[in-house]
Amino acid sequence: MHTNIEPSILYFGTPVILLSTLNEDGSTNIAPISSVWWLGWSCMIGLDATSKSTENLKRNGECILNLASGDLAPKVNKLALLTGSEAIPLHKKMLGYKHSKNKFIHSGFTPQENGTGKLSAITECPIHLHARVNTISEFGQGDERMAVPAYSIELNIKTVSAVPSVLMEGSNNKIDPNKWNPLIMNFREFFSLSAQLNESRLARKPEALYAPWKQKGIKRLLGKWLLTRSNKKYGH
Ligand SMILES: Cc1cc2nc3c(=O)[nH]c(=O)nc-3n(C[C@H](O)[C@H](O)[C@H](O)COP(=O)(O)O)c2cc1C
After folding, report:
1. For residue range 187-200, what is the model confidence (pLDDT) as tens digits?
2. How far does CA 144 lie from the centroid of its chain?
3. What's the CA gap between 69 and 166, in Å, rounded?
4. What is the CA(71)–ligand 1 centre distance, in A?
5. What does 150-166 look like in DSSP terms, one character per residue?
6. 21 lines ligand 1 (CB under 6 A)
7. What 3-state DSSP class applies to 111?
8. DSSP assignment, residue 235?
9. Residue 129: what pLDDT?
10. Band of the pLDDT at 234, cuts 50, 70, 90?
11. What is the whole-number distance in angstroms between the Cα of residue 72 and the centre of ligand 1?
């Protein structure tokens, strides 16, 4: 029998990413967030409107999502209760947040230069997603239970880079779910994934079907035509 409950927060368990964004002076701000999900090569993140990350994304639009693995929990914990904003908003003051100009130094994470841009990734994170802002929308408007102003931000993933130790044997393009163990935030506590549980019928279907854009020549043209025809029914 279920009973209605009223939790103060609804943090049911999502992966922790460390968001690199560019400060005005060209340095990199890093911030842990866990309101994140992916669909295709786009990603949705949820951000407190008062955060330095939000300010940076609005100004510059570029970011790196550094995906944290379970073993990084102690370092991620050092980033908690820090903000890159000099003016700390009331709700963060009440939680004891402090300003940090250089969160790499505070946390012990190592900045990794990224070819052309100034933005640094985090070396210790096994997967880096370079992304750009697509849309920024107000989130939770009109809901009095939304304690802080927030945005949902849609990002387009430009590149994915990963360390070899999380890749499937014999493939440069597949993350092995048996080797990749994301850090999960579950009601503000840190967890990692346990062992694989059950055979997955979905995972037995060809992964290539998720990426028709990877097909070449006539297969690509035919696939595009068929999908366009089918998707029309759904207003796309
Ligand atoms: C594990 C973890 C997950 C968090 N998830 C989010 C989140 O999803 N969205 C958000 O706005 N803040 C989240 N926070 C709080 C931010 O880290 C906090 O707002 C911080 O001040 C952001 O840094 P910034 O102000 O330098 O951008 C999370 C904090 C921790 C420790």
Report:
1. 999 999 988 999 99
2. 26
3. 10
4. 19
5. EEEEEEEEEEEEE-GGG
6. no
7. strand
8. T
9. 97
10. confident
11. 16
